[in-house]
């Protein structure tokens, strides 16, 4: 009887347990059970579900958090998995809340096809781990710098005046990390200097961690999506956040409008009476919205095309907030293309050997194109992306070769 029955299961996930509910494809509740969140528990849950019938689909809450292990176990056993949103709060208030109820609600959501999403690829977790560690290091470094400054405010006058001459935080940290507290006789001075030295050495350690983690993020994002990483204004941190939001399996995004809504960059109508306008969205993934915001600000400051566009919009009477909303929406459209249709990027590694083979200096190239020599050097090393300049540079080198021949 059960071999011909088609069932749908829902999973309410927690740190130590998962609760499953099984319903038929007509919505009849069959059974529910609780299992441990370990490989043995996952296998027991799958065997329990299959004992009730053929598992058509499984709806799991939190496929990227508490439900990550169970999601991978289901996929390894060729069971289709979808991510379900948590139950509506108004429904919870009417029906109550418990693990069996939440699991049953997840199963019914799968059957109804409402509020479902494709789970993210497990490889997204690698980026998330590196990004969390890097941001934690930056946060701890900022806190340590503020603690040093607070300690020096109330330090003895002689100590305060000695370190006041360091105008930059970098120089101050370097000086404190190499100071000798025991060379002083005043116990207060010794204690304050010892604390500041410990904090300064902690800052240097965190800075090394930041550099190492940034290099790992740069390498991983460049490998996963070189076109995204090469886009103007997209650094390792920003690229990693966009990949985490979208998932490395970007086919889960239905359209660029859906991605804009996910990233909180979709225009929200804010019209009333004779006023017709849109405003910035306050929903979506705020970390992804922050990534788009940073790209927009960087392009606004340094990208000539963006600066020309903003100047035209300001002349047309738009406010800076409206222009920023338009920029973020356009950037979301561009990022969606990079995320869903990765493409190879131009390799600049041939430029430097070709220039050196003709004994042409960086200054000569820079003077010809009207840029700084450092810009040409960064372009040759792949530290700066400018496909137009690279193409013109390559054609110019070929002309120099023909003239030399």
TrEMBL record:
Transposase IS110-like N-terminal domain: residues covered: 9-153
Single GO term (MF): transposase activity
Origin: domain of life: Bacteria
Pfam families: DEDD_Tnp_IS110, Transposase_20
One GO term (biological process): DNA transposition
UniProt KW Coiled coil keyword: yes
Coiled-coil ranges (or none): 196-223
Key words of the record: Coiled coil
Residue ranges occupied by any Transposase IS116/IS110/IS902 C-terminal domain in the UniProt entry: 228-310
Cross-referenced PANTHER family: TRANSPOSASE FOR INSERTION SEQUENCE ELEMENT IS1111A (PTHR33055), TRANSPOSASE FOR INSERTION SEQUENCE ELEMENT IS1547 (PTHR33055:SF16)
Protein's UniProt name: IS110 family transposase
Organism: Mycobacterium bourgelatii
